[in-house]
Amino acid sequence: MTDKDHDGSPRIFISEVQGHQARYRKLIQFTHSSTKAAGAMLAAAVIALIVANSGAYEAFLEFWHTEAGFFFGEAFAGMSLAHVINDIFMAVFFLLVGLEVKYELTVGELTNIRQAILPIMAAIGGVLVPIAFYLAFNASSPESVQGWGVPTATDIAFALGILALLGNRVPSGVRVFLSTLAVADDIIAILVIAVFYGHSPSLLWLAGAAGVLAVLVLMNRSHIYSLIPYLAVGLVLWYCVFMSGVHSTIAGVLLAFVIPSGSRVNLKSFTDWSGTKVREAHETYEPETPVIAQGAYIETVRSLSRIARQVVPPATRLEHRLYPWVYFGILPLFALTNADVSFAGVDVGAMLASPVLYGVLLGLLVGKPLGIMLMSFIVVKLKVASLPENVNWFHMLGAGVLGGVGFTMSIFVANLAFADEALVSTAKLGILVASLLAGVLGFVLLMAQAKVAQKRGVAYLSGSSDDVTRQTAGGEAARDTQELLRELEDPSVLGEIEAAKKRGGVFEIVVDLGESGLLGGGSIGDVREAVRDEVVRVLREEGRDDLADKAQEEFREHAGEPPLASVEEVLRRERPELLKDALEREADDATGMSGDDGKRR
């Protein structure tokens, strides 16, 4: 058996456990997939709907109303299983949401106001217009008017899960836009829940919560980087918020913002120190001696492992640990206990005639995309921001429609907004129908645009670091790209990918052979203009404005020559060593195209 992995890197684990490691990697990939998470929640919602309209519904409700808690002598402290999910487990969900928001505010898309202004303003439009739609149906009804917050929320897991199904058939800018919009939407939803959907607050318990929060801030300022103290004090914060009357899930968000996002390790020193430790490990390793007997080697590796784990910030460690539990445990449980719309013994006619149903349904399905598109159009036309690279208005419409997938957050707000169970069920029906239609319609719109791009010969090869793909639901697209590149085996494209990786962030290569290219019936002049624009863009991105200007001059002076002649001339004069490398690669390409190894390029 070879000691190399499929990518040529050395195998770390012994051959006997390769199968276990492969299964573990598949499990990790599965539990960090946006599409799989959305599928798990959808399956739970379908089960809840089936059970709610069967003979097992009464037993189903009775089970979720079972009390769980602790006895202290004669005293009992507890709550129903349904409340455990809605008040405790969902606080953990909001802790994860808070960590994602903190990431975006610290190093993500929300740090650059120029880039973030478009999705932020789109999120605001996507909140205000649905409220207007809802109030148009319910403003005159005192019983239902308080449900205005229900159609304002976007379910980030479902929306990005649906988008992830398209893989690299859509530009990465669409994923970044929708992801950032959903995070901004979550911030607004958190504020709405905290301000408008709590009970009359107890000032005493609020003061207690403020005191606990001050302790957490002090811990952060004191550079405490262990997670355990934060989680322990966070439990006290949750209890104070729960008793105060403000919804307890807000405690999860507050806790997220005080967990350190830096590292206790001096990263500059760690580089030298770890290199020294690796050399020590190499020197003390004895190949013929059982590892259990290599005390010096084990101690060196243990020291390296202990410090290396602490390089990762506490916020990042906690987020990665929570992700599979939240998206494959908590959210499916929430869907199972809250998507139970029962038509048994219900006046279906009254439900279908209810203004709540149409306020929620149209607010999500029409108001949400309308608000997103309208605000985006205003921002772009005023030149406050521009559309993401390679993204057109049809892409924006598809993303806006996906913003109407409310589900988790909308159901959560509906439970808080209405005391009447009939109104809660009606709102849930509107949420489920709107989310289903918005998900299907948004997918179809983006798929239609992908088909148009495919016919034009456009492909989007996206990739990024793990953290960025997690934030933009681009993991599936990045994996699709790697699979495609492995099949193509094109060294020039691979070289461009590697160069883009070094620049950091999300990168994307667009191959366009459409109307401006020969495959679309275009002329040599059309190709020439496309090549010129792309060459100038790449050179300017690399900071080579001097070469970009010279290339433009050569294009103008040699208008009748082949499209790449100007590029060759600039390289011949300015960077002959680069031209030599390019010609050598061209010779290799010609050999490959004429030989058996060039049949698939």
UniProtKB/TrEMBL annotation:
Membrane topology annotation: Multi-pass membrane protein
Highest taxon in the source lineage: Bacteria
Catalytic reactions of this protein: Na(+)(in) + 2 H(+)(out) = Na(+)(out) + 2 H(+)(in)
One GO location term (cellular component): plasma membrane
Region (Disordered): 550-601
Localization: Cell inner membrane; Cell membrane
GO BP term (any one): regulation of pH
Keywords: Antiport, Cell membrane, Ion transport, Membrane, Sodium, Sodium transport, Transmembrane, Transmembrane helix, Transport
Residue ranges with Basic and acidic residues bias: 550-560, 569-585
Stored Gene3D superfamilies: Na+/H+ antiporter like domain
Regions crossing the membrane: 37-56, 76-97, 117-136, 148-167, 174-197, 203-220, 227-244, 250-267, 325-344, 356-380, 392-417, 429-448
Molecular function per GO: sodium:proton antiporter activity
InterPro entries: Na/H_antiporter_dom_sf, NhaA
PANTHER family: NA(+)_H(+) ANTIPORTER NHAA, SODIUM ION/PROTON ANTIPORTER NHAA-RELATED
Function: Na(+)/H(+) antiporter that extrudes sodium in exchange for external protons.
Similarity comment: Belongs to the NhaA Na(+)/H(+) (TC 2.A.33) antiporter family.
Protein name: Na(+)/H(+) antiporter NhaA
Organism from which the protein derives: Enteroscipio rubneri
Gene: nhaA
